[in-house]
Amino acid sequence: MCRHVAYVGPGEFLGKLLVEPPHGLYRQSWAPRRQRYGTVNADGFGVGWYAPDDPVPARYRRAGPIWADLSFADLARVVRTRALLAAVRDATLSGADAEAAAAPFASGTWLFSHNGAVPGWPGSLAPLARALSAEDVLSLEARNDSAFVWALVLARLRAGVPGGRALADTVLEVAAAAPGSRLNLLLTDGDTVTATAWGDTLWYLARPGGGTVVASEPYDDDPRWREVPDRTLLTASRTEVLLAPVGEPPPKQRAPVPSPFDAPLLEEPGEAPAPADAPAPAKESLT
């Protein structure tokens, strides 16, 4: 379910990261190449980004598919940012929460996204609600598993738990309560990106021109993309990426320099066709 991406680095236009890459998040809304569950992400989308000299991110979210929103295409062309988190949604269960159910969720300087699903929701996680205050429960932005997982993460962040530990502890707690959960979580404060690979794909790219991209799948065929092993915690800055098993402290050294793939990424059989009204993505890759 869902695809998401985060970036920290030199100032970049939203469109350069999300729309123009040949297999960027825009195209992944109807034709993901490596999505294991679901084929079309048309149940909403959202983008959060950080403006200069403002630590609190702005958000743009909608309940419909990203390809149908002409205002976003225009916005992405002119908005420039040093950090972003964006997602396209394939809803586990239909609901009435509209754009409130679309990531990124936000609080203060934080942006958050969940790629995955929790079996047995909501009953499977009902016991975990005891760890939240009544105000936290009543303040849930949406009535879905992702919003509840975000509440668990946020409670830890507010208690002073570092981002990586907050994600890892939440993943372990939710996975114990609902075995089989898929919990690829993505968190940023505008300076770092923290993520978990737990049940679905996760990749990262150290861009040659500076900056780091963390995404559900590569947005182009650059051989520098590196896949993150399952059950892994990733912490990235503009200059380095750290990997560690979920539940263990991050290493003190950066991840090894990625080696080139043996072959470029290829289109997979059975790719979902683009909707007739979907604008064709740009053919030029990022440099």
Structure commentary:
Helices cover 18% and strands 25% of the residues. The chain has 287 residues and is α+β, with helices and mostly antiparallel strands. Residues 256-277 and 279-287 have low confidence and may be disordered. Helix 5 packs across helix 6. It is globular and about 45 Å long. Strand 5 and strand 6 form a beta hairpin. The chain has a single domain (3-245), classed as Glutamine Phosphoribosylpyrophosphate, subunit 1, domain 1 (4-Layer Sandwich), CATH 3.60.20.10. The longest helix is centred in the middle third of the chain and has 15 residues, at 163-177. The protein has six helices and 13 strands. The protein has helices at residues 14-18, 25-28, 70-78, 134-138, 145-158, 163-177; strands at residues 3-13, 45-49, 58-62, 80-88, 105-107, 110-117, 182-188, 193-197, 203-206, 212-215, 226-227, 232-236, 241-245. Strands 3-2-4-1-10-9-11 form a seven-stranded antiparallel β-sheet.
Summarize the structure.
The protein has 287 residues and is an alpha+beta fold. The protein is built from six helices and 13 strands. Strands 3-2-4-1-10-9-11 form a seven-stranded antiparallel sheet.
